[in-house]
Amino acid sequence: QVQLVESGGGLVQAGASLRLSCAASGRAFSIYTMGWFRQAPGKEREFVTAVNWDGGSAYYADSVKGRFTMSRDIAKSTDYLQMNSLKPEDTAVYYCATGRLPWHSDYVRAPEHYDHWGRGTQVTVSS
């Protein structure tokens, strides 16, 4: 059974930084694609970023490119999402997800291709 647990969310002012963590257990962490998605109230879940199994390749949503960075610590079975220059529009529940999916933009950006999800962590950015 795969388990993902997010942490690190909170309330910050615009321009601040946060680092989210996603701790994984129960599977061969190092061979799976990992992604982050977010969902704001009344909106659909949207892709934020994803990295491939070794962390050597990544995709980012245009809205976060240059501000967010995803990284992996395979030894700790933990992924991180460093979020800088936060904006009020970044306010959402952030979810990490994992799965054995093809490393291609069409797959990694679509939430339905991920097999396992965490429960999410709230990020609120005030103006």
Segments where pLDDT lies below 50 for 5+ residues?
A: none
Number of helices: 1
N/C terminus separation? 40 Å
* SSE pattern: EEEEEEEEEHEE
Mean pLDDT: 93
CA-based gyration radius: 13 Å
Explain this structure to me?
It contains 1 helix and 11 strands; from the N terminus they run βββββββββαββ. Strands 2, 4, 5, 6, 9, 10 and 11 form a 7-stranded mixed β-sheet that branches. Strand 4 (33-39) and strand 5 form a beta hairpin. The chain has one helix spanning 105-108; strands spanning 3-7, 10-13, 18-25, 33-39, 46-51, 58-60, 68-73, 78-83, 92-99, 116-117, 121-126. It has 127 residues and is mainly β. The relative contact order is 0.31. It is 3% helix and 48% strand.
Name the descriptors.
single chain; mainly beta; four-stranded antiparallel beta sheet; 11 strands
Quick rundown:
The protein is mainly beta and 127 residues long. It has 1 helix and 11 strands, in the order βββββββββαββ.
How is the topology of this model organized?
Elements: E1 3-7, E2 10-13, E3 18-25, E4 33-39, E5 46-51, E6 58-60, E7 68-73, E8 78-83, E9 92-99, H1 105-108, E10 116-117, E11 121-126
Parallel strand pairs: 2-11
Antiparallel strand pairs: 1-3, 3-8, 4-5, 4-9, 5-6, 7-8, 9-10, 9-11
